[in-house]
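Here we describe the complex-level prediction in full. Unlike the single-chain runs in Section 2.1, the two entities below were treated as one system.
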Amino acid sequence: MSLSVDIGHGFGGFSLEAAFEAPEGVTALFGRSGAGKTTLVNAVAGLLRPECGRIVLGERVLFDSAAGVCLRPHERRIGYVFQEGRLFPHMSVARNLSYPARVSGRKVDPAETARVVEMLGIGPLMERRPGALSGGEKQRVALGRALLSAPEMLLMDEPLAALDAERKGEILPYIERLRDEMRLPILYVSHALDEVARLATTVVLLADGRVVKAGSAEALFADPDLAPRFGLREAGALLTGEVVMHHPDGLTELRVSGGVLYLPGIEAAPGTRLRIRIEAQDVILSRDRPEGLSALNILPAVVEAVKHGEGPGVIVQLRIGADLVLARLTRRSAEALELAPGRACHAIVKSVAVARGDIGRV
Amino acid sequence: MDILGAEEWQALGLSLRVAFWATLWSLPVALFTAYALSRWRFPGRGLLNVAVHLPLVLPPVVTGYLLLLSFGRNGMLGGFLEDTFGLVFAFRWTGAALAAAVMGFPLMVRAIWLSLDAVDRRLEEASGTLGAPPWRVFLTVTLPLALPGVVAGALLAFAKAMGEFGATITFVSNIPGETRTLASAIYTFLQVPGGEGAVAVLVGVSIAVSALALVGAEALSRAVARRIGMAE
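The structure predicted for the assembly as a whole is:
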């Protein structure tokens, strides 16, 4: 099942013209506020009727302006997790969870409910009212409620934006589980790069109501041309690796295609596949393999592309094994090292550079 | 109770009956009207708004006279209702209930309208995405959340109906046992010499009933709010 969107809509001097595909897994709609992300998801949910275009989920046409089709929200079977949860204040958590079944005339399936409750860890909250829940608990219940509406896909509009870093960290693993266990397309709106880096299978980069680029998360994050869009300070490629072992000194050894990385202890069993983001500004380049350096991670690399911007910096795209990594350095250094496509060098990554929030399960 | 004679009991009983039926019948209409005014933009919305509020600002005698014109036996609606349903309003207690309903209607609509406006529309949207068709959204989200206002509006209209006088007496006159409500009875006793004692008793009853309705409205509203978890 996949979602295909191609719509146009204008309001108040803003125009949205966007087309993209969301396959199974998490498709992140990424862009600044005002890029049209929420408008897009609302159009998919049926909360907003676009002026023209077509929205198709699997075989079902949800919206087609030419054919005059526009299913109403309750006919679309799309679960929507809102930024503010939107739990019903006059119902207990249990009633909120059974709500979708009750209003659509289906039988409440106790096994399905139990499975979702277990997956989200909301068992102890069942008798409480939403008013007595923390922000993180509310979002988990909202997630559960959306899942129990027997959806054919999920929409999440910045579901973590209202939460602090700790609560975010509490929920992200649940969303990862969701992505891996329920084979649904998930459209995930965010302007937080760390969430996108951790969750997204596919990324749709939006700016001013247009799709700048869409593709696999790895490809977009490793594209030096897009680095300014992601924010130069935060831009960085995604690497997937497998946990080899935990060393007694607290470091975790991760095998990536181009060698091994030593990272600060990650709680994951050996054999687990993880995805990490290495920010371009944390990568140092050296033409020769450096000796007597404190950095532990030194990987042989080949320059794929050098992208000059307007400022004094350049973004270098490197191939390390089968993966692409970005490095951000000054133009002066790039010239001194005579960096050009095809040039072999060594990439140095400080072990502590990988932030905990950037490590996602694959 | 001996302070109340047969006539006084009759008036009190009639007032309660009139107010009860007036409230019951106008409630669904008021709900629909308030919902339309709160949620829909349609041609004639301004006109509907004015029409709803008219009984609040018109002299009650005028409202009563207009009711007589339209619901009297020779009135357009009155004739039609009598011919088709055998329903007669003129000079019957049903007419008193109709007058009370019309006079209380603006109060009821206003209270419900305000509470509907206060319902978070985003919760209604959420309900739709969870598979609820619009009528289910109304029954499971909108109505429960607006319930304190609905209850308050109904009790306010009930209290208003208990005390209605001008429109009632103009429309259905002041017939003992049929249309002589508390207010009409007080008026009647005031007209006869030596009626002060009965007036005092009826005034007392009137105050007690109105106060009870108001206190009841407050308490009920609060209880409902607590039940739906809005009070925390």
